[in-house]
């Protein structure tokens, strides 16, 4: 079942709608046309009590003026591009430097701040679409984007990404949901597994150095379940740079989940599946309690964790990484699944 409601209007007068998808388990997902944003996910705990497991905002003002991309679709290029520039076929493109005036973060936030068109596909699926003009944020090509959100009966939220450009360009899309499976407090006691033998260390501007470093013997070893907070304060240069985890993990080639998170208190579990090569673990390190989120509660440090499925950061400038350059007319497709359960 899908229900449409108004979510207000942006400061410049664009109307925003909220589409609620609910399955027979009463699991429900709220999707906003602003930023094609997954605004809330309501799932039961081991006692059958429902809670919203996403950190974010109750109002469009929060998303417009205070957001750190909570729940938003991000692109054209998710994550960072060093020095706001890259080249394709010898042509240099200078793109928006929206992070410290140095890096391009999440494509300059174009997709996240757009109001997308929405079409209800069926009782459990909705499609969002947006067209980015040639040269937007400095990127080449007019690109037609589509994102389909489908809530299945097994409490899996499937997100399908699609894009096609009229010029050769780079595309890397993800969702920036901040999860808190307890629905309250911080996530340091959540247990996490990431199916990755390696990660990409970063420099002081959070750009990969180019090294593919083994996780073994480091705070980045999540190959077995461990609490997010166990090593988040470790004496480690990479932890110090990110003030916690804000790193890309190089996923192993596997049919199983890329990552699994578990909250021992509520019993809620999240499995993440993707067809992409990387996932960015971000642990809300820069949230500091000064921004007010849902239900008037401050967004405290580590209030949520992100598992952003993606191509590696700065890929256009690092030919040794798996590439995400598409030709004119070539279809970009990817799929991510967030599957909820209890144990």
Strand order of the largest sheet: 12-13-14-15-29-25-24-19-22
Q: Which spans of ≥5 residues are poorly predicted at pLDDT below 50?
A: none
Shape verdict: globular
Q: Say how many strands there are.
A: 29
Oligomer: single chain
Q: Compute the number of helices.
A: 3
Explain what you see:
There is one protein chain. With about 350 residues, the chain is mainly β. Helices cover about 5% and strands about 40% of the residues. It has 3 helices and 29 strands. It has helices at about 60-65, 110-115, 235-240, and strands at about 1-10, 15-20, 30, 35-45, 50, 55, 75, 80, 85-90, 90-95, 105, 115-120, 125-130, 145-150, 155-165, 170, 175, 180, 190-195, 195-200, 215, 225, 245-250, 260, 270-275, 280, 305-310, 325, 330-340. It has a 9-stranded antiparallel β-sheet with strand order 12-13-14-15-29-25-24-19-22, with no helix packed on it. It is globular, with a radius of gyration of 19 Å. It starts with a strand and ends with a strand. The mean pLDDT is about 100.
Which terms summarize this structure?
globular, 5-stranded antiparallel sheet, 343 residues, 29 strands, single chain, 9-stranded antiparallel sheet, mainly beta
Provide a short characterization of the protein structure.
The protein is mainly beta. The protein has helices at residues 60-66, 110-113, 237-242, and strands at 2-9, 15-22, 28-32, 37-44, 50-52, 54-55, 73-74, 80-81, 85-88, 91-94, 104-105, 117-122, 125-132, 143-151, 156-165, 169-170, 174-175, 178-179, 191-194, 196-200, 213-214, 226-227, 246-251, 259-262, 268-274, 278-282, 306-310, 325-326, 331-342. The chain is 5% helix and 41% strand.
């Amino acid at each position: 079942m899908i229900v449409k409601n108004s979510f207000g209007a942006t400061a410049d007068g664009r109307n925003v709608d909220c589409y609620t998808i609910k399955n027979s388990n009463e699991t429900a997902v709220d999707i906003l046309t602003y930023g094609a944003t997954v605004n809330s996910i309501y799932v039961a705990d081991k006692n059958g009590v429902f809670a919203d497991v996403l950190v974010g905002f109750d109002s469009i003002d929060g998303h417009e003026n205070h957001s750190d991309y909570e729940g938003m679709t991000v692109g054209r290029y998710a994550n960072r591009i060093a020095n706001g520039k890259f080249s394709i076929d010898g042509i240099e493109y200078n793109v928006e430097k929206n992070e410290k005036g140095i890096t391009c973060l999440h494509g300059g936030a174009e997709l996240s701040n757009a109001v997308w068109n929405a079409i209800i596909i069926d009782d459990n699926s909705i499609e969002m679409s947006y067209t980015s003009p040639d040269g937007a944020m400095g990127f080449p090509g007019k690109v037609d984007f589509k994102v389909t959100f489908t809530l299945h009966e097994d409490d899996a939220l499937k997100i399908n990404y699609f894009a096609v450009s009229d010029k050769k360009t780079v595309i890397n899309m993800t969702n920036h949901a901040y999860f808190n499976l307890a629905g309250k407090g911080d996530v340091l006691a959540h247990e996490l597994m990431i199916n990755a033998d390696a990660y990409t260390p970063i420099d002081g501007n959070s750009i990969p150095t180019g090294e593919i470093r083994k996780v073994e013997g480091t705070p980045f070893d999540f190959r077995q379940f461990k609490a997010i907070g166990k090593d988040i304060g470790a004496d480690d240069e990479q932890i110090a740079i990110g003030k916690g985890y804000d790193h890309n993990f190089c996923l192993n080639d596997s049919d199983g989940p890329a990552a699994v998170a578990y909250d021992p208190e509520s019993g809620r579990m999240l499995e993440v599946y993707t067809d992409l090569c990387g996932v960015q673990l971000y642990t809300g390190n820069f949230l500091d309690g000064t921004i007010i989120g849902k239900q008037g509660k401050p967004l405290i440090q580590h209030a949520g964790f992100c598992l952003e499925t993606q191509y590696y950061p700065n890929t256009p400038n690092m030919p040794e990484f798996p590439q995400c350059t598409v030709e004119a007319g070539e279809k970009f497709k990817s799929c991510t699944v967030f599957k909820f359960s209890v144990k």
